[in-house]
Design brief:
This protein is α+β, with helices and mostly antiparallel strands. The chain has helices at residues 3-11, 49-64, 102-115, 125-133, 136-142, 145-148, 165-175; strands at residues 15-20, 29-35, 40-45, 73-77, 83-87. It has 2 domains: 3-87, 2-Layer Sandwich (Phosphorylase Kinase, domain 1), CATH 3.30.200; 123-175, no CATH class.
Length: 176
């Protein structure tokens, strides 16, 4: 059964449109589904073992936390493969460009995240992502042009990543 059909069955409403989302950090299947009741939802389905495991962690997190910056959890289909169904945020504003007040909103969100208690059993970042994170800032400092060439750092005065190396290196080490 397709992901869209599984979501329709779980929510008890027909899917009237389906759009694949071609971005993300995992090989998970990502869809925006238009529903017959007028809603649209974002569905993410595991496509292999690792993305399926991560969806279980993500569902656990959505169940444990609630904040204005998080999409609402609509459903979690704990089958094989798992499917996470969230509020669709396609129509939200996604900087850049940054509008007045956006940076303050991000700062408030980060403060909320910092104060949040993770769900029981959540691994520290380096337990889950260790080798992917270690040394990445060193790679940027050694060859800054790919990073600087994205155009996102110059606007904030980051023209020499080596100048920020001690602070960033300390932040990475502190997360370990």
């Amino acid at each position: 059964m397709s992901t869209a059909a599984r979501v329709a069955a779980a929510l008890g409403v027909s899917v009237v449109s389906e759009r694949r989302v071609a971005r993300g950090y995992t090989p998970a299947e990502r869809l925006v589904l238009g529903l017959a009741d007028g809603r649209s939802v974002f569905a993410k389905a595991g496509t292999e073992k690792l993305s399926s495991e991560w969806l279980h962690w993500e569902a656990r997190t959505y169940r444990a936390l609630s904040a204005e910056f998080l999409p609402g959890l609509i459903a979690f289909l704990d089958d094989d493969p798992p499917v996470l169904v969230l509020e669709d945020l396609s129509d939200a504003h996604w900087p850049p460009p940054w509008r007045p007040g956006d940076v303050e909103t991000v700062k408030r969100a980060l403060a909320t995240i910092r104060a949040a208690t993770p769900p029981p059993g959540t691994p520290r970042i380096f337990e889950a992502w260790g080798e992917l994170l270690r040394g990445n800032w060193e790679l940027v400092a050694a060859a800054p042009q790919p990073f600087l060439g994205r155009g996102t750092s110059r606007a904030h005065g980051a023209t020499r990543p080596t100048a920020h190396r001690p602070a960033l290196g300390g932040a990475v080490a502190g997360a370990a």
